[in-house]
């Protein structure tokens, strides 16, 4: 099984971090005069390319909240488990004051908004729609034959 060299690994990691071929190659220890060419060649190598693709997918997954995480967060806000930090200015005497940090439960508006979002997700609320229009109904009454029988 072929493995990347240490330099190739450094290049791939730097490329992921910077998104720029030349500087990634230089940071990895390649010659600055041929850094772009060497970096471009590295990006065409299947082993390095697949490593970069896998790492990018991992980083994407780490940085984007999944559905369960969002629902858990909204639930904790709704229940008042999430604490907001508030700054409070306290007077210490004649002309002095200090700022103190205090933790407080999420306010009612934030909790209500979280409950609304959860309710929408689980379709707990139904919107009623009033539809108006002229249907143009005509009624025809048929009393039978006109011959009197």
Individual helix count:
6
Overall domain count:
2
- What is the CATH topology of the largest domain? Arc Repressor Mutant, subunit A
**Which CATH architecture of the largest domain?**
Orthogonal Bundle
As laid out across the biggest beta sheet, the strand order is 1-2
What's the overall geometry?
flat
Largest sheet: 2 strands, antiparallel
According to DSSP, the number of beta strands is 2
Low-confidence segments, given as residue ranges, are none
CA radius of gyration is 34 Å
Would you tell me the overall average pLDDT?
84
CATH level-1 class of the largest domain: Mainly Alpha
Describe the structure.
By secondary structure, the protein is of the alpha+beta class. It folds into two domains: 6-63, Orthogonal Bundle (Arc Repressor Mutant, subunit A), CATH 1.10.10; 68-121. It is 50% helix and 12% strand. The chain has helices spanning 6-18, 21-28, 35-44, 46-63, 67-78, 108-121, and strands at 83-91, 97-105. It has a two-stranded antiparallel ribbon with strand order 1-2. A hairpin with a 5-residue loop joins strand 1 and strand 2. Helix 1 packs antiparallel against helix 2 (21-28), helix 2 (21-28) packs across helix 3 (35-44) and helix 5 packs across helix 6 (108-121). The longest helix is centred in the middle third of the chain and has 18 residues, at 46-63. It is flat. The mean pLDDT is 84.
């Amino acid at each position: 099984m072929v493995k990347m060299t240490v330099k190739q690994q450094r290049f791939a990691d730097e490329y992921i971090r910077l998104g720029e071929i030349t500087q990634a190659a230089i940071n990895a220890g390649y010659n600055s005069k041929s850094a772009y060419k060497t970096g471009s060649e590295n990006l065409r190598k299947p082993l390095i390319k697949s490593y970069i693709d896998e790492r990018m997918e991992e980083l994407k997954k780490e940085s984007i909240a999944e559905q369960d995480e969002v629902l858990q967060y909204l639930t904790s806000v709704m229940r008042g488990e999430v604490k907001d930090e508030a700054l409070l200015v306290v007077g210490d005497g004649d002309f002095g004051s200090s700022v103190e940090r205090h933790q407080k439960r999420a306010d009612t508006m934030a909790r209500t908004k979280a409950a609304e979002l959860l309710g929408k997700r689980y379709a707990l609320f139904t919107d009623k729609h009033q539809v108006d229009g002229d249907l143009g109904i005509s009624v025809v009454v048929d009393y039978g034959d006109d011959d009197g029988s």
